[in-house]
Write a structure and sequence with these properties.
Organism: Streptomyces ardesiacus
Distance between the termini: 33 Å
Largest sheet: 2 strands, antiparallel
InterPro entries: Terpenoid_cyclase/PrenylTrfase (IPR008930)
Protein name: Prenyltransferase/squalene oxidase repeat-containing protein
Strand content: under 5%
Keywords: Membrane, Signal, Transmembrane, Transmembrane helix
Number of strands: 4
Number of domains: 2
Length: 421
């Protein structure tokens, strides 16, 4: 939810050095169903590949995907993530020795921190960890209102968007998180290309190039659409008839497009890029014209969140047909991206083109504790209302499950706050 993602470990190492990406990529995992605990893989971590560049990112995506599928994650997996936090609230991609204090050389970043916030808020019970992480994010906000990958680096669309997702997920209004009078939305809209552009009309750029020009970037656009909508890594399909949702494929100019207009323009760019083949192509060197499965999954989430599930139907169908092999070679973050794409479109992740994505994801790490979601599809209207209005419906059932490893205090206290007049 995010440059967020995927490539070789070598590419990630280069990205980390120059600070030009917003989050670690998914390195190939040739044996994703192998036991998560091995001499080179920390206990509790999803996946078996080197976690130096994407450990917290892939763990956070895995927990978020499990949560959307009604899975109560392993307490060991959640503890692995909370243990990665530094005393100042920040997260690095991976800390080999969590017992050792973080110092100036610890490579903390906004993307790992924002992803961890969203995951830990979703599973509940870690309000102190979330609060410290949000405090750190606010402390490193740039003067333009946005965030770069690491503190002190220029803002970019991906990093700013994933932090917006962390803020909105925790019921914090990004528009009120300001630095020098600028909000994250101000920074994000500065990366939006106008419709008058001959190439890349309506897209988001990652950030200006060395000459100050904005170049279209599909990855940044998928992130930017969600950020402009105030959405996080987990997003629901928009009601196409609702306010702000647009399912047409045209970019519409405005003197100063607002957030909804910028999101619609970005979605139009993505729809156009996907129209020919049903997938996006890789921008990595040596991979030209190769399908970019991860970016396509992110585009599905963005299109569904902006214009409704139908708008993402073609790339979703392509993923169902082609993405299982990619995910099996790429590991937990890839499975998680597909689960999140399924969630955004109302698709069953347990039958995604014949693949049970949830089962495959669960197999890449410690066994989950169980299932937490009550099936309300067959419940009576009265029962459903009780579940929605009372802390003793689904929430109580979830709490009983979570109390044995994740904690219930934060979850129930938040529920109580929501119920107060």
């Amino acid at each position: 939810m995010n440059v967020r993602r995927r490539s070789s470990a070598a590419a990630l190492a280069a990205i980390a050095v120059i600070g030009a990406a917003t989050a670690p990529a998914v390195a190939a995992d040739p044996s994703p169903s192998a036991p998560a605990s091995s001499p080179s893989t920390p206990s509790g971590l999803y996946g078996t590949t080197d976690p130096r560049y994407d450990g917290v990112w892939r763990q956070s995506l895995a927990l978020l995907a499990q949560d959307t599928a009604g899975v109560v994650p392993s307490s060991k997996a959640v503890k692995w993530l909370t243990d990665q936090q530094c005393a100042n609230g920040a997260f690095a991609p991976f800390r080999a020795d969590p017992a050792a204090a973080c110092d100036a050389k610890t490579p903390v970043d906004s993307n790992s921190t924002a992803a961890a916030v969203q995951a830990l808020w979703a599973v509940g019970g870690h309000g102190d960890v979330v609060e410290k992480a949000l405090g750190w994010l606010k402390s490193v906000q740039n003067e333009d209102g946005g965030w770069g990958y690491t503190p002190g680096t220029p803002s970019d669309a991906n990093s700013t968007s994933v932090v917006i997702g962390a803020l909105t997920a925790t019921e914090t209004d990004p528009g009120k998180v300001v630095k020098d009078g600028k909000s994250p939305y101000d920074a994000l809209l500065s990366f939006a290309l106008p419709c008058a552009k001959d190439k890349g009309a309506g897209a988001f750029a990652f950030q200006p190039d060395k000459d100050g020009k904005l170049l279209p970037n599909a990855d940044a656009t998928a992130a930017g659409v969600l950020g402009a909508l105030g959405k996080g890594l987990v997003a629901e399909a928009a009601d196409p008839s609702g306010s702000g949702a647009r399912s047409d494929a045209a970019c519409a100019d405005a003197d100063k497009p607002g957030r909804e207009q910028a999101a619609a323009n970005g979605a139009a760019y993505l729809a156009d890029a996907l129209a020919e083949d049903g997938h996006l192509v890789s921008a990595l060197g040596g991979s030209a014209d190769q399908p970019d499965y991860g970016n396509t999954a992110d585009a599905v989430v963005a299109l569904a969140a902006q214009g409704g599930a139908d708008r993402a139907a073609e790339p979703l169908a392509w993923l169902k047909k082609n993405a299982a092999t990619w995910a099996s070679q790429s590991g937990p973050a890839a499975y998680a991206q597909l689960v999140l794409a399924a969630h955004a479109t109302g698709t069953d992740p347990r039958d995604f083109g014949g693949t049970d994505l949830v089962e495959r994801l669960n197999a890449t790490g410690p066994a989950p504790q169980g299932t937490a979601v009550k099936d309300t599809a067959t419940a009576s209207d009265e029962d459903r209302k009780k579940d929605e209005d009372s802390p003793f419906g689904v929430w109580w059932f979830v709490g009983v499950c979570l109390v044995f490893g994740i904690g219930i205090g934060f979850l129930l206290s938040n529920r109580t706050k929501k119920q107060q007049p």
